[in-house]
Design a protein that fits this description.
The chain is built from 15 helices and no strands. It has 389 residues and is an all-alpha fold.
Length: 389
């Protein structure tokens, strides 16, 4: 899947859809942010809940998504270089379909992870390994995709289509499981509203908001700096490397602290890095802050997904992850809109990130996020639905 997504991103790098630059009108950037929310309107209420109840539902979804994404790329290849109104309309429609399919795959993947591990303690390691493989594969796929891009964007898109088809064939090896043979009803609601999941979800939204804020804050602020475009490119590269490293060492971190402490550490890292960047007030500090924020969000995501997967065993995970991904994307959009509208100075923006990190860490700690019970302790809790009789 990652190879296909990388090929698509490279092929469309110069398209009207992905060419929204920092110099574009604020309205255009805000429109882009709103469009990024659109796929969740389809995925969250309609797709996520239904795939939980079918035998092999998530496996079937991964296979179907792979085939459909290959078909979408072939369709895009036919219209990517056209300028007529019809071709542009088809192009945007296919891009939107690709976004929906991408989010659907992400939800199905998160819901499938628990069925591939033997113990809850392995969940963070499994999620971490998936992210690590995706990062390494993305970097590796960029080379052949870039070479084909020199020949033609169509060649790159066809390369991506083949990669998606290959992913669909590999998906047949996934286990057939039913994550929700019947509606969990009240039990599901109780589990998803447990203190561990609620506090972890709030922390995750704060981290995602900081990611969105830093991306667009840097995009606008660096316009006034010498070699601003080059610096922004370096920031993107550094954040990609930071995400890869966070996924690589995610399981190592888990061996030394619980998921709750991982989330607290992520918020504190954002706060400390924000303070340093605001005090230093230089481009290098801003780039490093962006890297830390993205790494912290990655660690937080690993901890959050593991928390949901272990603390809500009776929940329809497709529906649950669709719901949480919608909230996280909304936090990213809100975080991105703020610097687009207000356009704060570099120092003020970095200080704002530090403040959000500090407040988030304080609220998380006060809410009891770091005293999350183990599965065995929950079994003896008289107020928990999984208690022992």
């Amino acid at each position: 899947m990652t190879v296909g997504e990388t090929a698509m991103a490279i092929a469309l790098a110069g398209s009207m859809f992905l060419s929204v630059s920092p110099d574009a009108a604020r309205g255009q950037v805000i429109l882009f942010l709103l469009i990024s929310m659109a796929p969740f309107v389809v995925v969250s209420p309609y797709i996520g809940p239904n795939i939980d109840k079918m035998r092999g539902g998530h496996r079937m979804v991964v296979i179907a998504v792979s085939i459909l994404r290959a078909a979408v790329l072939i369709g895009i290849a036919q219209v990517v270089q056209g300028k007529s109104i019809v071709r542009v309309g088809l192009f945007l429609t296919l891009i939107f379909c690709s976004m929906i399919l991408g989010k659907t795959y992400a939800i199905a993947k998160s819901a499938l992870v628990p069925s591939t591990v033997k113990a809850e303690e392995d969940l963070v390691g499994a999620n971490s390994k998936l992210g690590q493989i995706a990062g390494i594969t993305g970097f590796a796929a960029a080379v052949p995709a870039g070479i084909l891009q020199v020949i033609s964007p169509k060649a790159t898109l066809c390369f991506g289509a083949v990669a998606f088809l290959f992913a669909g064939l590999n998906a047949y090896r996934l286990p057939k499981v039913v994550t929700a043979a019947k509606d969990a009803a009240q039990l599901e609601k109780t589990e998803l509203k447990s203190s561990s999941i609620v506090t972890a979800g709030n922390a995750m939204r704060i981290l995602r908001g900081c990611v969105g804020f830093m991306f667009f804050h840097l995009a606008f602020w660096l316009r006034g700096e010498v070699a601003g475009t080059a610096w922004f490119g370096l920031a993107i590269a550094m954040t990609g490397l930071a995400v890869l490293l966070a996924n690589t060492f995610g399981s190592f971190v888990k061996r030394h602290m619980r998921e709750s402490k991982m989330l607290l550490a992520a918020l504190l890292a954002v706060a400390i890095a924000g303070i340093v960047a605001a005090w230093y007030d230089r481009v290098v500090g801003a780039v490093l802050l962006a890297a830390v924020v993205n790494a912290a969000a990655t660690i937080g995501k690993l901890a959050f997904e593991s928390t949901v997967q272990s603390d809500a065993p009776d929940a329809n995970r497709g529906r649950a992850f669709a719901h949480f991904e919608t909230q996280n994307q909304l936090a990213w959009v809100i975080g991105g809109v703020i610097p687009v509208i207000l356009r704060p100075s570099g120092e003020v923006g970095f200080a704002a990130v530090a403040l959000v990190g500090m407040v988030g860490a304080a609220v998380y700690f006060r809410a009891g996020g770091v005293v999350k019970k183990s599965r065995g302790e929950r079994a003896t809790d008289p107020e928990h639905p999984l208690r022992s009789e």
